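#lab-general

N.A. 3:47 PM
ok so I finally got the sequence cleaned up, no stray characters, all 175 residues accounted for. can someone with queue access submit it? mine expired

B.Y. 3:52 PM
send it over

N.A. 3:53 PM
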Amino acid sequence: ALGVIGRESSFGSGDRFDYLNPLKTLWANLGGSTSVGYGQIKPETAEKYGMDVDDLNTALGSITTVYNILMDNFKKARQVGFSGSQSVNVKNGTGNAALDMAIVAYNAGAGKIVKYCETSDPKIKKDCKNAGKVINGLTVKNKPVADYIPNFKTNRWDGVEISSHGYVQEVANKI
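B.Y. 4:20 PM
back already:
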């Protein structure tokens, strides 16, 4: 949880956080959908964990919410089959595939926690629920790849671009 908070807000410090977070908090209090606080959590997500916008702007509220989100993601990753061993394709992560996947899901959403299968392109893996189907010209095989962490890319309005693997590495470095 501290690694996520370190990555998301530099532990609640720095010009970007100091100037942007109050504006985002105001927007969230007016009903806007934006991430706020040390863990950069959306109010609707915090509400699921019994927290509100004001809680997210406290160290205790943020770390509690981040921890609970990560634990839910970790449990789901373990249920799907991710192990405590190193990911097969993330070498600079935490060393624990289930935790790496939980961190990816913190940023990309819990819906990304699925089994990934081989495709007709050995470099690309897809959700195993599509086994036997052709997705974007690739045939998804019924061959799960253990502890595979997908590498989603994000393009944001504010110019902060990161991949799933890069996000995991940044969080691991903060740990």
